[in-house]
Amino acid sequence: MATAVAVRSGGGGGLEKQPMDAGKYVRYTAEQVEALEKVYAECPKPSSVRRHQLIRECPILANIEPKQIKVWFQNRRCREKQRKESSRLQAVNRKLTAMNKLLMEENERLQKQVTQLVHENAYMRQQLRNASLANDTSCESVVTTPQNSLRDPSNPAGLLSIAEETLAEFLSKATGTAVDWVQMPGMKPGPDSIGIVAISHSGSGVAARACGLVSLEPAKIVEILKDRPSWFRDCRSLEVFTMFPAGNGGTIELVYMQTYAPTTLAPACDFWTLRYTIGLEDSSLVVCERSLSGSGGGPNTTTAHQFVRAEKLPSGYLIRPCDGGGSIVHIVDHLDLEQAWSVPEVLRPLYESSRVVAQKVTVAALHHLRQIAQEMSGEVVYALGRQPAVLRTFSQRLSRGFNDAVNGFVDDGWSLMGGDGMEDVIVATNTSKKISTQANSANAFSVSGGVICAKASMLLQNVPPALLVRFLREHRSEWADYKIDAYSATSLKAGSCSFPGLRHCRFSGSQIIMPLAHTVENEEFLEVVRLEGQAITQDEAPGQAVLSKDIHLLQLCSGIDENAVGACFELVFAPIDELFLDDAPLLPSGFRVIPLDTKKEGLASSRTLDLASSLEVGSATNHSASDKSANGHNLRSVLTIAFQFPYEVHLQDNVAAMARQYVRSIISAVQRVSMALAPSQPGLHVGQKLLPGYPEADTLAHWICQSYNCHLGMELLRYDGETGESMLKVLWHHQDAILCCSFKMQPVFTFANQAGLDMLETTLVALQDINLDKIFDEAGQKALCSEFAKLLEQGYAYLPAGICLSGMGRHVSYEQAIAWKVLGEDNSVHCLAFCFMNWSFV
Question: Residue 396: CB partners within 8 Å, gap ≥ 6?
Fold first, then answer.
């Protein structure tokens, strides 16, 4: 009878039963398990060669067969997978339990609100029935909020009274019915959502509330949220003027905060508030805040003329510990932004919308907490081995530097320069600015001149902000000047500035975007962009270096993801050295697009410059008013542009003129792009032409399909004409990527269906900037050259599987490609068509 021995593998856990042969098992010793665990820690899935090498190098494993080693590693990986899955399910269960508790509390609050509304409705009906009481004002106490009597801020007892009233009012907003809350559109609660987000439906001021689960302890959350400049991008500064204990275990602080203006058309604002931190009997922590009366409060009254005093109504944070770890966080922001009356009427929606407050402040706080929680848990791993805190600091520096440029505060050293008679572009100079992260940084940039900023704001009509920012990001050559980029990059690197007209350089038109980090909700991306320079010959630049180096930019973009929700959409960048040190100096420039009609849902950011909205025959001219509204018509937004340039003192006027003209050229480019992106001109209608001299879109679709059938003897599309769909629409939605390029010495693409645009990661307008030779790698170019003679002779050619490049520099694999000549009405070659089958990103 065969014997069997069961074995416990220490460290790896569980029993290991490994068959040596039929009916026999091996017992692993503690030393053997330890040796295997060391190898597993380095390589959980060793190859056959590595397993044989392990047996040779480790004498204690000499009696173990390679197959048994293989099975041990399989079991070990299985146990690790089960352990991780168990931990994940436990975390999901805790989250669902907490979310269920949160939803039950929200349901209870809503029931109370309904009951209150029913009583108020019954009371008002009773008043209307009683004619004798028609002029009775006693009902005002029911529908109005009692006003707090003023307290003396210089009296600690008076401050404590204000603090206690603030606490009571805040709790009634966070968990009660003091505000008529309605769910914010697009923010449905669920296990994968950020939480429950609501905005005020009526009442004084603008208010927003968010409730969510965060995997951090209450004390840590309080520490993070009180450090407002670290997560609130619009916060310029926050200073605790005085702090003293309240006598009941709480702390009272007098806080002065300055915030940036979102655009050059609006003033900045400041707040003078009382902040009260207290622990409750149920172990919850509360941080509540409200404005103090008086407009002269605050330590920086000398700069008060640059700000408009805004009022914060009782707001704050309620943090409740959860069973099993983590916390439930309630955030309320209630503001009265009086500067709405000091801005142009078109900008007032920014100050009268609770949704803007929710996106910019309330949800941003919850996003930041979740980001910190994931970073602390080790779930976030970023590229280039950078620590999350370092990359987060880079994002903050880019945003802060751009805000400084847009606002141009006098106390930061900015002063306006004289104009050229036109008021479209504002030019300011800062002679005291030193670009560094530390006062004694070895990488600080300082020149004898300073920094010039050229900035402007413009109103956009019918332009989806997310689509505009995404276009500016993906197609830099459409608006940027490589010489000026090279000027800024060289100045920051060398610490000396020369006029850009003296530098010979050339842009190849290619940019490579390398992702660094993104936030948990994918609403913000940090990346490095490499702009590839071209070689300059001695004839083109006598006496200068033959090669011009690539330019690297650190770039922050937000709002380009189709699921992102935000109050503004930004593309901010700064030239950096290729070494990209942690304390690298940054001089940010960029774009900010702020939607003004916040109550209207614009187009999804996934929309491209394509034919999708115009493929229905006859639909181009028959749209109802509701259709126009749904498709983003009458959508308004304000675009702010700010570009910064270092300069030497003797070149100040030259650089200022260059900066002014450069921003004007960018404005013109943006206007051209906006006209193409506007829903009123949705790509191509049936009957419109692709390019001057090219056939109509519907005609081109027929030529493509007829030529394919003529050359290959088979149909390209399953189209019978009986379904009512046009051939153009069928071609547009074809699963394979179909592209057309001009039949010239340097062929450029002129048309692509939706799959083709997706494969090249471009739009129909930018498609015309891509040459045929740019999308193939070396092997693909050789294959095309070898088959080109056959293509010309027989009219078509098959290309083997290969790799091509998208417009963003990503590798795309395809199983097969077919090229054929597209013949026009007179049987002359109009263009070349390509069909890439079963393509996917590598």
Answer: 230, 233
What pLDDT sits at residue 611?
34
- Other CB atoms within a 10 A radius of the CB of residue 703 amount to 18
Residue from 671, 603, 591, 676 nearest 634 by CA: 603
Closest among 368, 262, 252, 259 to 311, alpha carbons compared: 259
Rounded to whole angstroms, the maximal C-alpha distance in the chain is 106
The mean-pLDDT minimum among 439-443, 656-660, 750-754, 757-761 falls in 439-443
Question: Any residues with CB less than 8 A from the CB of 29 and at least 6 apart, and which?
Answer: 60
| Strand-pair partners of 305 | none
Least Cα distance to 647 among 660, 636, 632, 634 occurs for 660
Give kind and range of the element (H or E) at residue 790. helix 778-794
User: Coil, strand, or helix at residue 137?
Assistant: coil
Residue labelled with tokens 């979740």: 370
Could you tell me if 246 and 224 are in contact, meaning their C-beta atoms sit under 8 angstroms apart? no
List CB contacts of 299: < 8 A, sequence separation 6 or more: 239, 241, 256
d(CA 637, CA 579): 38
Q: From residue 472, give the alpha-carbon distance in Å to each of 136, 185, 304, 477.
A: 61, 28, 36, 9
Residue for token pair 């460290």: 11
Residues 703/815, Cβ–Cβ less than 8 Å: no
Residue 186 has pLDDT above 70, yes or no: no
Return the SS3 of 478. Answer: helix
By the 8 A CB rule, do 306 and 268 touch? yes
193 close to 294: Cβ distance less than 8 angstroms: no
CA–CA dist 712, 708 (Å, integer): 6
Residue 476 tokens, joined: 């830099």
The phi and psi torsions of 212 (rounded to 5 degrees) equal -160, 165
Q: How far apart are CA 614 and CA 627, in angstroms?
A: 13
Give the mean model confidence (pLDDT) for residues 366-376: 89
H or E element, residue 513: strand 507-518
Average of pLDDT values for 583-604?
73
Residue 131, judged by CB atoms within 10 A of its CB (0-12, 13-18, 19+), counts as exposed
> pTM surpassing 0.85?
no
Strand partners, 554: 528, 574
CB 568 within 8 A of CB 559: yes
Nearest to 678 by CA among 639, 636, 616: 636
Q: Which two tokens stand for residue 64?
A: 């173990």
Report the distance separating Cα 554 and Cα 401, nearest Å: 13
What is the distance between the alpha carbons of residues 417 and 401, in angstroms, rounded to a whole number? 20
Could you write out the three-class secondary structure of 70-128?
HHHHHHHHHHHHHHHHHHHHHHHHHHHHHHHHHHHHHHHHHHHHHHHHHHHHHHHHHHH
End-to-end CA distance of the chain: 56
Instruction: Spell out the residues 6+ positions from residue 780 whose beta carbon is closer than 8 angstroms to its own.
Output: 799, 802, 803, 804
Angstrom distance (rounded) from CA 356 to CA 359 = 5
Distances (CA, A) of 541 to 544, 641, 781: 6, 33, 31
Q: What is the pLDDT of residues 114-146, one digit of tens each?
A: 777 677 677 676 767 665 444 444 433 333 333
Selection from 283, 282, 250 nearest residue 161 by Cα: 250
Closest CA to 190 of 96, 264, 275: 96
Most confident of 322-336, 384-398, 426-440: 322-336
Q: Work out the pLDDT band at 340, boundaries 50, 70, 90.
A: low
Which residue, 594, 490, 589, 586, is CA-closest to 544? 490
Q: Distance between CA atoms of 710 and 827, rounded to whole angstroms?
A: 11
Instruction: Quickly tell me which residue has 């600091």 as its tokens.
Output: 393
Two tokens at 525?
């991306």
Determine the angle formed by the axes of helices 30-42 and 48-57, rounding to 10 degrees: 140
